[in-house]
Amino acid sequence: MKILLAGKSYQKPLEGWPSVEDLYVFISVARYEGFGRAAIELGQSPSYISKRIAILEKQLETRLFFRTNRVMRLTPEGEKALEGALQVVHEMDSFLNNFQQWRGELTGDLTVACSFGFGQDYLSDTIAEFMTRHPSLNIKLMLSDRDIDLLQSGTDVDIRVGDDVNHSYIARKLAANRRILCASADYLARSRPLETLDDLIDHSCLIINENNNTFGHWTLTDGENKIVCRLNSHYSSNSGKVILNWALKSHGIALRSAWDVAPYLSEKQLVHVLPQWYQEANVWAVYTQRASESPRIKVFIDFLADYFAEKSLPMMKGRL
C-alpha cells in the first residue's frame, strides 16, 4: 500500500537544511558562550565546533554570534535561531523517545546533577544499577556543591538535598531527611555551655554557603516552632565535606544531614547537640516541565523513588 502525504505542512527536505547535530552544537555554544566548554561537553575539538557553527551560519545565511577575544554572545538573529533550535531538538528528542519506548527500550542522553558528597557516596551506585537495566542510555552525572540553573546548564534532573526548591521547577520527593546539630566532644568541653538556641551566638558555627539561604543564619524547627538563629563564625565553605571535616577537627558546630553524621555519632567522634532542633532537608528530584514529558526521565525518576523507598537515609554513610 502506498502512503501519500498531502497538505501545506509537508515539505520535501532540502539539501541546505541544517542537521540536528549542528543545531545541538549551536545550543551548546550558546549555553557556554564559547567553543572551548562546548567542545568539552560534546567530546569534540574546538576546531570541529567552530566548523559546524560556520556551516550552520552559511546555511541560515546569517551571523549567529558576536565574537571578541574574550567572549561570544548571540546576535539578535542568533537569539531567534536559538529558540527554533531548542524546539527542533526537543521535537526530535520526543520523536526518538516515543519510538524507542514503542520498541521497549530507552535511548538517548540523560544529564543528572547532584552535590559532591551525595553523588559520590550514594547516587553513583544508584545510577550504575539503573544503567544495568537500560544499557542503551547515555548518562552523565555532574557533581557540584553550588545551585545550578537547569535550563542554562542543560541538566535534565537535579537531585537536591534540602527543601529550598525553586517553585518554577517540578519537584518530586524521594526521601525524608533532616539536618541536625553536632560537634566534637573536645570542642564542647572547651566551649561555653550549649543548652538553648540562644547559646549558639557564643559558639563557632560552621556555615555552608547556599545561594538560596541568608548567610550566617540557620532556620531550625522542633516540629511546632520555627526559629531563625543568627550565627557567629569565621568558618564557611560551599562544600559539605569541608564543613564535616572542620567539625571532626573541633573547629565548631555543624548542621549536617543525619545520614551524613550517623557513623561519626555512633563512633563518638561527634555529639548530637540540642537534639530537639533540626532542619528539614528532604531529598528531591527536580526537573522542568519540558523534561517531565520525556519517557526516559519519567522512568529514571520512578526508579529513584522506588530505590530510595527501600533505603533508610539516616543510616547511610556519606556527605551532602
TrEMBL record:
Keyword terms, alphabetized: DNA-binding, Transcription, Transcription regulation
Name of protein: Transcriptional regulator, LysR family
Domain HTH lysR-type positions: 18-75
Similarity annotation: Belongs to the LysR transcriptional regulatory family.
InterPro entries: LysR-type_TF_proteobact-type, LysR_HTH_N, LysR_subst-bd, WH-like_DNA-bd_sf, WH_DNA-bd_sf
